[in-house]
Automatic annotation (TrEMBL):
UniProt superkingdom: Bacteria
Species per Swiss-Prot/TrEMBL record: Dysgonomonas termitidis
InterPro entries attached to this UniProt entry: DNA-bd_dom_put_sf (IPR009061)
The protein's name: Helix-turn-helix transcriptional regulator
Length: 101
């Protein structure tokens, strides 16, 4: 039985490993982990003020849209940012209009 089978079995067991075996397990785990690629750079996000100016809306409208899920905000350094693609979809009419809550 290898360590993966042991992990998948869910058995409550104690295991003793040689240091070299532990190193080999970590190497295998690290090589199998794909680095998370963040396809979005800071330029792909807009500040609240930029969104308000671009969409020509009031801050209460933006707040309402966030609460209803029409647009999503993302925290950056304690401030909200909005995806440029989401804002452009609203601005160009590609995002459907939601009525009510």
């Amino acid at each position: 039985m290898n360590y993966r089978d042991l992990l998948n079995s869910g058995a409550n067991v104690s295991v003793t490993l040689k240091l070299e075996d532990l190193r080999e397990i970590f190497k295998e785990m690290v090589s199998s982990i794909k680095p998370k690629t963040n396809d979005q750079s800071p330029e792909d996000f807009l500040s609240r003020k930029e969104v308000l100016n671009l969409l020509k809306i009031d801050s209460s409208t933006l707040w309402s849209w966030e609460k209803t899920g029409y647009i999503k905000s993302y925290p950056f350094g304690g401030r909200k940012r909005y995806k440029l693609v989401d804002v452009e979809a609203i601005r160009t009419g590609r995002k459907g209009v939601r009525h009510g809550k």
